[in-house]
Amino acid sequence: MLYVRFPLSRRNAEDLLHERGIDISHETVRFWWHRFGPMFAAEIRKRRIEGMKSSRWRWHLDEVFVKINGERQYLWRAVDHEGEVLESFVTKTRDRKAALKFLKKTMKKHGRADVFVTDKLRSYGVALRDLGMGDRQETGRWVNNRAENSHLPFRRRERAMPRFRRMRTLQKFAAVHASVNNLFNTERSLSSRYLFKQNRAAALAEWRSLCAA
Questions:
Q1: Between the CA of residue 22 and those of 11, 14, 35, 70, 154, what are the distances in Å?
Q2: Which of 17, 94, 152, 167 could be a cystine partner for 22, CB 3.0 to 4.6 Å?
Q3: Distance of alpha carbon 54 from alpha carbon 31, whole angstroms
Q4: Rounded to whole angstroms, how far apart are CA atoms 62 and 64?
Q5: pLDDT tens digits along 13-55
Q6: 58 vs 113: CA distance, rounded Å
Q7: What is the pTM of this model?
Q8: Which among 91, 60, 94, 65 is positioned nearest to 77, based on CA atoms?
Q9: Residue 175: C-alpha distances to residues 3, 169, 195 (Å)
Q10: Which of 52, 124, 43, 108 is CA-nearest to residue 81?
Q11: Rg (CA), the chain
Q12: In order of start, what are the domains of the chain with their CATH numbers?
């Protein structure tokens, strides 16, 4: 949880655990992340999809570039109206084919949205027309801030890492990080201190139940 949730390196996580009386190496942190991260993320997604209200009425779509071995790749994200990251997807390009594949993958898990909020990248419009939903696209200045802001936690986390070396590793980490961030994202600025503390305690209790399962 420390390594994925906070912008820490593996050695930072090792030092924090050492202060708590847990003596491990940074390689153990790496092993735990590869072994258990996807399992926890899958269970978090399952529970949230089952327990949440419909998130299909408004999606925000956006993409950012991430360098892998010096080459530019693209991380696509679909975010619902409440800021939940629905899907993360890595591609080498951001053309029609990539946008179409991203949309199909997201809709396979979450159904079809009533409104797709995007930037002015033409690939979105072409892909949505291919799917027969061109009339559901919405673009405009500042309307897609929800998706753009969702990239910030990942960007902070990325800076603490020694870069990604493979697309598969980036895809895996982005999916796990999004799930963990969804669990602990309590919209602190939009709730009272009392409600925030309740939500934070509930998120931590759910995480501990996943670890104990």
A1: 13, 8, 19, 36, 27
A2: 17
A3: 36
A4: 7
A5: 999 999 999 999 999 998 998 899 999 988 888 877 665 555 6
A6: 6
A7: 0.82
A8: 60
A9: 14, 10, 27
A10: 52
A11: 18
A12: 54-213 (3.30.420.10)
